[in-house]
Amino acid sequence: MRLFCLYTQNCFLPLHRFCQHTGRMDWLYNAFFEHSALQAMVVLSVICALGLALGKIKVLGISLGVTFVFFVGILAGHLGFSIDPRMLLYAENFGLVLFVYALGLQVGPGFFSAFRKDGLTLNALAMGVVIVGTLFAVALSFAMQIPIGDMVGVLCGAVTNTPALAAAQDALKQLGLPNSSPALGCAVTYPLGVVGVILALFFMRRFFVKPSDIVEEGEDHSATYISSYQVHNPAVFGKNLREISHFINHPFVISRLWRNGKVSIPVGSSVLQEGDRLLVISSEEDNKALTFLFGEQENTDWNKDDIDWNAIDSQLISQRILITRPELNGKKLGALKLRSNYGVNISRIYRSGVQLLASPGLRLQLGDRVTVVGEAASIKNVERVLGNAVKSLNEPNLISVFIGMMIGLIIGSIPFFIPGMDTPVRLGLAGGPVIVGILIGTFGPRMHMITYTTQSANLMLRALGLALYLACLGLDAGVHFFEVVMRPEGALWILAGFLLTVLPVLVVGLVALKVMHIDFGTVSGMLCGSMANPMALNYSNDTLPGDHPSVAYATVYPVCTFARVIIAQVVILAML
Asked: What whole-number distance in Å separates Cα of residue 215 and Cα of residue 186?
């Protein structure tokens, strides 16, 4: 390693000296070595571009992705590249804020729903991984005599969590202490943090997983289920739908009503008669209650992907319409009175890949796709009401992005005290914007805030911010990185990082698998999400059937990311 570093450093010396001593090449020298705004942009752009390109290379099916920017920055710092310290600090902070705020917007809509039903169990287990890892880190800090600031950086690398690293650095800055050592610890342990989770999952599957622990078929996690019924219950004969809806505490939407060979869109005043056929949208667990209510469930499978809804009957058609009118953002579906005004029915709503029941109390969001059933002329009128202008959604609403980041930074700077600690805790540059992003992503539409961004736009913001942050972090840490690695404490950090990656995963994973009897696909996704490790998730998706790993990962990732940001600060402020 030392020979490689000396070789690469010597490769750049001729260029450096040639540019420095050749007057005709001053512009090239200035572009790479003379501190200025232009030079900072050139150096960071080269680091980001090279790191992103190398990050696409797979070794044994594993690639580091944008994280490779971090290691290219370390190499650049070791080779003598640098930028103005104030510009470095600004670019690093701006990249971090942009990344965590966009991350908050992305996970916000599903953040609070992650605490319902099975999500509560998975998040409790994932928090177990976080807590066990933190306790191990504190214990290893005393056992190996590693300063707690360095150990928190080792922990951040072991769990591949760069927002937590930023929070730790911010806490050290609040105490007036040097904040570069956590970045060194993170850089040393990050590669094994990526590989360690995969090794732990492989070990668990090899020695502890039985065939019955792997679910072959993934469940349908859609929030809606379509079924048809025949009305044979005398208790509902002659009753209108408004009265019948009060008979059971299960929400449902009747999309179509067939009577005497004719189909119609039912409204609240529609009266049911014996022999009516109903197409009902509800949740699958409500089937028994609805069968008891109406009389008989038909055997037709209405949930197949290849159903041609427009061929079911000749009078009505079904069409998906995109909500693009800003004034509808945050409005309740029932307030639009589409059924009474236009004679159409909204049967389902698609939001972020999930089907939602079109209940009157559901608040609409910009970008929702609603399934409208009715006559062609009526659907055209509804299309004008809802918008359906795809082009307007492709223009990102940057006003809400900058306002959200501003509010997040203000909240992140507010000090609050924890009992038993003399130094106040601040959410900082990482915690404040991610919390505000989550809250705006969740509750913004209710306040009629336009928070919608396309998936590609959100991914662009996150990737740009993270690449900029990692480039600056690596450039700063690279000056002393290889010196640390070659010293005995470098090997100690690597050992500690590997233990912090593998032990919490094995302990909590075996509890979930053997004690709570959760299927291995869900367990693996939960563990990957708790460790913020998308590379390990790719391994799980490639080696396991179904979508259980991805669903579990998305369920626990927001909570664990937020928890690690706060815990990193608390550990440093409490122990220094």
From this structure: 36
Q: Does one domain contain both 488 and 521?
A: yes
Asked whether residue 287 is domain-assigned, the answer is yes
* Tokens at 494, concatenated: 């690597």
pTM of this structure: 0.61
Residue 553 maps to a domain: yes
Angstrom distance (rounded) from CA 155 to CA 172: 15
CB burial readout 61-71, b (16+ within 10 A) else e: eebbbbbbbbb
**Dist. CA 569–CA 168, nearest whole Å:** 5
Those residues with Cβ within 8 angstroms of residue 23's Cβ, 6 or more apart along the chain or in another chain: none
Question: What average pLDDT values come out for the chain (576 residues) when binned by 10 residues?
Answer: 46 52 62 80 89 79 70 84 85 82 71 65 91 92 87 87 76 71 77 80 86 58 72 88 80 84 81 89 82 86 70 72 78 82 80 71 80 83 79 67 86 76 68 78 69 70 82 78 74 88 93 89 87 73 72 74 80 77
Amino acid at 474: G
Contact 204, 509 (CB under 8 A): yes
Domain of residue 529 covers 89-216+416-465+484-575
Total domains present in the chain: 2
Instruction: State whether 560 and 425 are in the same domain.
Output: yes
- Do residue 139 and residue 110 come from a single domain? yes
572, 141 in Cβ contact below 8 A? no
- Is position 31 within any domain? no
